[in-house]
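For the sake of clarity, the format in which proteins appear in this thesis is described at this point. Each number in the token line that follows is a code from a learned vocabulary of backbone shapes. One such record is shown here in full, so that the layout can be seen directly:
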Amino acid sequence: MKDFLVRTASELDWHYGPEQLILMGLLLLWLWLIWPSDEFKALLTDKAKQTQILLASVALNALWLLNANVTQGIHVHFLGLVTLMLMYGWRMASVISILPVLFFTTFVIKSPFDFAIYGLLGINLPLFLCFMVYSQIFKYLPHHLFVYIFGGAFINAFLSILFHILLWAAWLWLSTDYDWAFLRDNYLLIIPLLGFPEALLNGMAITLLVVYRPHWLYDYSDSTYLK
């Protein structure tokens, strides 16, 4: 174990620039603005919920470890963000994802100082955009179970991959030597290939939760969607 930790530490890229520090500040500011204080107060006395969130974090870590490195800086993995959002709300989901982000950037990307960049652009902003899509679906479409699963979970999960890849590609374009043509041909083209399995994965997960554990979902109610 000691040898593994020493070897891992030696492989990590500890270099950082001013943009990493700026984004770290932005991530901390973002988390401070969205911090779900009421939910955390309730969480302190709910042991079952604490265990559930711990298991969700472990599951998210496992999902992100199914990662393919296309080339330096380009990482391809499923997200599971929409399921997390529909279970805990987008603010709590943003906070829960911090530990998996730290694990991913340290042991997969092997660049701990990319933690803030990946957390903000790769996870938190896509989560917020998915929440905006979900809120518009709830506002303008009928409150029907099919709409909840197909619109709020399936289509929204596809969009989560779209937001994630577009934002990360924009960061790579601005901060590395990759030009947009290279990113388009080697990264953006995988959106349909990755988006449909992501949509199916989240859609199936939410369907199972609706059937067997509806009380685990943040704002789902039989009286709302099964009138």
About this structure: The beta strands are 68-71, 74-76. Residues 145-175 form the longest helix (31 residues). The chain has twelve helices and two strands.
